[in-house]
Amino acid sequence: MKIFLSKISPEAKSIALIIMTVLLFSTQDAIAKNLIQSYPPIQVVWSRYTSQTVVSLIILLPIIGTVLKTKNVGIQLLRSTFLFVATFCFFSSLKYLQLAQVNAVFQVAPLFVTALSVFVLRESVGVRRWGGVFVGMLGAIIIIRPGSTTFSLALILPIGAALSYASYLIATKYLSNEEAATTNFLYTSLIGFVLASFLAPTTWTPINPSDLFTFFSFGLLGALGHLFIILAFRLIDASFLAPFTYLQLIFASFWGVYLFAEIPDKFTIIGGVLIVFSGLYVWLREQKHKP
Predict the structure, then answer these.
(1) How far apart are alpha carbons 215 and 48 in whole angstroms?
(2) Contacts of 112 (CB under 8 A, 6+ apart)
(3) What are the strands, taking DSSP E only, across 46-180?
(4) How far apart are CA 61 and CA 227, in angstroms?
(5) What angle (nearest 5°) sits at the alpha carbon of residue 182, between those of residues 180 and 183?
(6) Residue closest to 231 by CA, chosen among 3, 36, 35, 14
(7) What is the pLDDT of residues 240-274, one digit of tens each?
(8) 275 and 107 Cβ atoms separated by less than 8 Å
(9) Alpha-carbon distances, residue 152 vs 52, 149, 264 (angstroms)
(10) In this predicted model, what pLDDT tens digit does every residue of 38-88 receive, in sequence order?
(11) Could you tell me the residue ranges of all domains in the chain?
(12) pTM: predicted TM-score of the whole model, two decimal places
């Protein structure tokens, strides 16, 4: 097996890992959608963070003292709060919207990253990349369709999730040269767990015994997904893998049809295509501007 794996290029290994990551995350979203039909969103978010935190502590226990050391407590708190808000908005939207809809709108997150990098990281973005961002936002508007009879305020939730997630990525990028990946990972889990534990009791609903295993284990999919991301990024530059994350739209559409009989409408498909192509265009322009 080792001989076989040694013959596989780092690029191929990293692509396989990121595809597995996207599959794990989309599966977790499908399970969350099922749970949220019976339980408050914050309770499902709490479950996700609890199982991930337990796994993280078990894995990192031998080096926990080193991993917990940080000189950026404030930024770690802000960064982790951004991800917590993104998770809450994303899961909340699943109660009212199709998996494909939520994931299509959420794909504007990389475009938000491009826009925020100008104001936060002082990076330069040319007219063509701004054009790509505009087209992606147009795709999101097509899906949301404000002013139409089918418009729902719930459609704002995945936009909020995308903006919060983009802010989390910007903060992560800011810390990338100062903190170890394991430190960022652990603080994300711990702070999310504390926030969810504080809020969950306000709307707690008794858990059906048949849901206990699912409730306390589905967050492991997210933990495993984050582990695969770390392994993939060790093999190759993160920007190389960015286009493969759009596969989540395909996986989400599959779970939506298979588990919930959700058929994406033409507006979701057209808007999703615009968002993906604009994201890929912005990514290609960023590659050309790299030194």
Answers:
(1) 8
(2) 162, 163, 165, 166, 167
(3) none
(4) 15
(5) 65
(6) 14
(7) 667 788 888 889 999 999 999 989 888 888 988 88
(8) yes
(9) 32, 9, 16
(10) 999 999 999 999 988 888 888 888 888 888 888 888 888 999 999 999 999
(11) 12-288
(12) 0.88
